[in-house]
Amino acid sequence: MKDNNHMPGHLARRFQQIAVAVFLAEVADAGFDLTPVQYAALATIKANPGLDQVTLAGLIAYDRTTITGVIDRLVQKGLAERRPSSRDRRARELEITDEGRRTLRKITPAVESAQRIMLRGLTAKEGEELMRLLRKAIAAGNELSRAPLRDVEV
Amino acid sequence: MKDNNHMPGHLARRFQQIAVAVFLAEVADAGFDLTPVQYAALATIKANPGLDQVTLAGLIAYDRTTITGVIDRLVQKGLAERRPSSRDRRARELEITDEGRRTLRKITPAVESAQRIMLRGLTAKEGEELMRLLRKAIAAGNELSRAPLRDVEV
DNA sequence: GGATATTGCTCAGTATGCTGACTATCAGTA
DNA sequence: TACTGATAGTCAGCATACTGAGCAATATCC
């Protein structure tokens, strides 16, 4: 068997593990209780008011069955609202609340700090290169997961 | 807010998501039902017969509370055994079974294939560079997660 | 030797993520 | 319009991961 350090899958798991831990720690230090997934969902709702859950899922590459619970928790925290759509009675329209907007604003420095910390072992140039290579690998593998990224075609 | 494509945390999640999907698909194609985590645990048990759960967790950077369930499932599938240690009655010694050894041997091509597929968008040189950068970032962030990698000091 | 701290493991609870199934609704078409 | 297929969302079930608590056993220190 190859060394774990030469298995991209193992390295992916470790890096993700650290990224989540850093995010939660920074956000907790700032006095908030929001997971990376909840943050991404909330930021995307703010940027695309009134979008439905499937579109949201496509924009951040979540599985549609995962979204349900994430939104549940955002709603329960009073950060987002879920309304029946008038155009399509199957769909729900998502909106950010004032409280959600305030939270996003206050939490941004912690989120940015977390992104820096998870790259702290790399030079700025290396960090850019890591992100470029991840983007390239992800683009090639996008369709291989159940929840591929879906750009909105308007 | 920054674009998701410039957030290392988001890229980490996406890459990990694809890596797991590819691993499961390749292993299923080969006729097996083993998760990445179960595979890593089993391979590590084989390489370190008789090790206890905490040591195993340290070698592959799992949380100790996660290990319990993983071993449960390996034992239930008949791939590993959990025995009380004679030296320390709190600890359990882990051993791979013949069935586990057979499974590992047969599954190896699928695992290697998965590692190639998750890097298929990159050149060989880029793949190496991605792994180098991930290793470097992980080394710097190792202590930031609850389950840091612990090399065995013999 | 005995109090104290530490360690190995487990468990309860919570949050992703997935598979697969189901309901309600919508869209296209014969 | 009735049929068919696709779509939006939810749910049950399973497998990571984590926090925090607890139990039993071991190590340490006085």
Overall helicity of chain A: 55-70%
* Low-pLDDT stretches of chain A: none
The radius of gyration computed from the alpha-carbon positions of chain A, rounded to a whole number of angstroms, is 17 Å
Overall 3D shape of chain A: globular
Spatial order of strands in the largest sheet of chain A: 1-2
Tally of DSSP β-strands of chain A: 2
Q: Averaged pLDDT of chain A, please? A: 93
Note down, in words, how this protein is organized:
- 2 copies of one chain form a homodimer.
- The first copy, chain A, is mostly helical and 154 residues long.
- Chain A has a single domain, classed as Winged helix-like DNA-binding domain superfamily/Winged helix DNA-binding domain (Arc Repressor Mutant, subunit A).
- Chain A has a two-stranded antiparallel sheet.
- The longest helix of chain A has 22 residues.
- Chain A is globular, with a radius of gyration of 17 Å.
- The model of chain A has no long low-confidence stretch (mean pLDDT 93).
- Chains A and B meet through helix 1, helix 2, helix 5 and helix 6 of A and helix 1, helix 2, helix 5 and helix 6 of B.
- Chain A binds a DNA duplex (30 and 30 nucleotides) through helix 1, helix 2 and helix 4.
